[in-house]
Amino acid sequence: MNYPWPEAGTPLDQVVTPMPVIDEDRLAANIAKAQAYFNQHGKAFRPHIKTHKIAAVARQQLAAGAVGINCQKVSEAEVFADAGFEDILITYNILGAAKLKRLRELHERVARLSVVADSEAVVQGLAATFDPAKPLAVLVECDTGGKRCGVQTPEAAAILAQKIAAAPGLRFAGILTYPAIGGAAAVETFIVRTMELLAAKGMDCPIRSNGGSPDLFSAHLVPSATEHRAGTYVYNDRSMVRSGHCTTDDLAMHILATVVSKPAPDRAILDAGSKALTSDLLGFSDYGMIEGFEGARIVSLSEEHATVDLKDCRIAFPDVGQMVKIVPNHTCVVSNLFDRMVFHRNGIVTRVEIVDARGTVW
Amino acid sequence: MNYPWPEAGTPLDQVVTPMPVIDEDRLAANIAKAQAYFNQHGKAFRPHIKTHKIAAVARQQLAAGAVGINCQKVSEAEVFADAGFEDILITYNILGAAKLKRLRELHERVARLSVVADSEAVVQGLAATFDPAKPLAVLVECDTGGKRCGVQTPEAAAILAQKIAAAPGLRFAGILTYPAIGGAAAVETFIVRTMELLAAKGMDCPIRSNGGSPDLFSAHLVPSATEHRAGTYVYNDRSMVRSGHCTTDDLAMHILATVVSKPAPDRAILDAGSKALTSDLLGFSDYGMIEGFEGARIVSLSEEHATVDLKDCRIAFPDVGQMVKIVPNHTCVVSNLFDRMVFHRNGIVTRVEIVDARGTVW
User: Fold this and answer.
1) Hey, what domains does chain B have and what are their CATH numbers?
2) ipTM of the complex
3) Which segments in chain B show pLDDT lower than 70?
4) Do A362 and B16 count as a contact with CB atoms less than 8 A apart?
5) How far apart are CA B306 and CA A278, in angstroms?
6) CA–CA separation, B61 and B68 (whole Å)
7) Is B258 on the interface with A (CB under 8 A)?
């Protein structure tokens, strides 16, 4: 990408737009606050790197005390293995000869690699790929109400755990869930029951991994969980403010955009479209929040334009050529659209990091 | 991106998923059919490269008879200038010192470069950048009902045209619109009235550029337009089928995905999430169409997962590990997520092209 990335020392009002920018102090505070919480409650914390996709930021998370990192795909894990990370959990069902081959290669060079499975088909593929000389750690993914992947009952979890334990090349490492928001009680019940069933078979369940940023500071409500995974907490976004996880003072990512047209009294057009903000609504009815201009609503996006409805905005909106700051609905997806990410402190650029794992979808 | 891109000759059932693929025959047919239509009606055709972002595909469009290309941002135009394209229209208000400097550099090396403006602020920036030795061609962007950018009335268009004509470094080249779907009559009225106003001032309006894929084959309903611009027609997508522009036999892009989980009888999970399909709904209530499985609805996306509701699907859905083909709601945004694009003929890979202008948002 031929972006004119700014030098360190550049004031943000001189950068080219659209440009996502990360506030260093808020980033550091978000990392420290979450880690302090997990330290206090005696739980391991494993950040999901999908939010930033940047090795340097993951190193900040490890330096603060995280036990390792969470990736979603083999390709993402490869990027972080290349960057020297030694404890990687891939929370995905890995299927097919090509991916299993790459997973095996990854296992050769990552000290502590683990994956998940929620079906016999996935366990069979893993079992056929790994051997007892260096078994792969596998967790059973459980659906505790999130309604995505995962076995549906503790009974099914226990049965799949036994299949993993019975495969010579695999090691049953525990259970994992990505719960519904507010689902602490359901997670606790599921974990406790699964552990009982496993104990009855003489099996241990060393790792009980829970996840999610919206409920991060409620992780202690799941006492049986040993570990928590979260991604979005590192930058935060509009959806995190809505969930009560943070305030607007904790928002580390903004997208800088320029007003390129004010064609009618009730309409402004910004140069940040779906290629900068993405179309993720996450339940909102508009595509981001323009800081300082209450009532100005981003009602539609095309690839390179945001259409702002000014009808309910009582504050004089910036003129053509002026800049605005947008809080994205969802940070993680913005990171995937840019080759580099610009960091700043008090509006002065501090560094520009390559988004190492951008585009790693396989 | 560490994607294991397939070699030519690879069958599509052996590629790694998620993977968007382009059908060569349908691509060629879409290009030929649109160009034949414009030839028949005596209008210039200027494809918008945003849909594919690939120089090799733009060359196919020029070889078929297109007069030049349409880009949306300076950075996109730079990529195509680097690839040797000599007639580029940038349909965007270009503002700010950094972008104007790059636009001037582009003008030095592109034989026929033109841009648009819809306000005095934009014209002033352009006027201060270019000089009479090599004036820049500028079209007035008009809002004929699309409600994005553009002057609101023919009177305002004529006034802005005069300002452009009065700037020594600029040349008034005509008018341009990106209309609402079905807006032919409004476009024709706007163009005719603007030409009358300009004629009364002794001004010519050589280019009258209309646009859009959904109404591409209705372009003859705007007889006063000299040129048409369209992007999506080249691949087509679910929204183009809905608009009546094409049938499912004209869909050149599919996204191949693998079933990674069937956790419950009414739910399947695919490995193509918003990082492969984007969250663009374009008015649909689900995130793409799974070919051959009517009633199977992609009801939600997270970054790496599509959740498929099977409740209303009467056909046995593929098992974990098997592949499905998804018709995306919107092709252009998918192109922006992948570093390369895989082309095939009858399911055998023919070539893998770099998506040259991926991520060019500034």
Assistant:
1) 12-21+246-354 (2.40.37.20), 24-237 (3.20.20.10)
2) 0.97
3) 1
4) yes
5) 16
6) 9
7) yes
